[in-house]
Design goal:
Elements (H helix, E strand, L loop, with lengths): L1 E6 L2 E4 L4 E9 L5 E8 L6 E7 L5 E3 L7 E6 L4 E6 L8 E9 L5 E3 L3 E6 L1
Length: 118
């Protein structure tokens, strides 16, 4: 089981940057795929990016590819999402996710708000 705490959200102008952090506690981090999702008002939660803890392999939604970068720091038990060239349509609550590879169970953080003004 893992616990996730996000931070780093805020208000930024279009074209700006933010870095989100997801501090994880628990064990066996290599047993999870780590990701970021987002949910805009009135919309479904959607996938943004994911990373394999052990392999470092990454995957991105088409809408953020080339602008966002997911990474992890094993020494700090933290997953990051670097958001560059932000657009107003990136405005959403961003959630950190840990997906257990064997059981398929998902763990979620409380979310952090990102607001991009035009």
């Amino acid at each position: 089981q893992v616990q996730l705490v996000e931070s780093g959200g805020g208000l930024v102008q279009a074209g700006g940057s933010l870095r989100l952090s997801c501090a994880a506690s628990g064990r066996s981090f290599g047993s999870y795929v780590w990701g970021w999702y987002r949910q805009a008002p009135g919309k479904e939660r959607e996938f943004v990016a994911r990373i394999g803890w052990s392999t470092g392999s990454t995957d991105y939604a088409g809408s953020v590819k080339g602008r966002f970068t997911i990474s992890r720091d094993a020494a700090k038990n933290t997953v990051y999402l670097q958001l560059n060239s932000l657009k107003p349509e990136d405005t959403a609550i961003y959630y950190c996710n840990a997906h257990a590879i064997l059981s398929g169970r998902d763990y979620w953080g409380q979310g952090t708000q990102v607001t991009v003004s035009s």
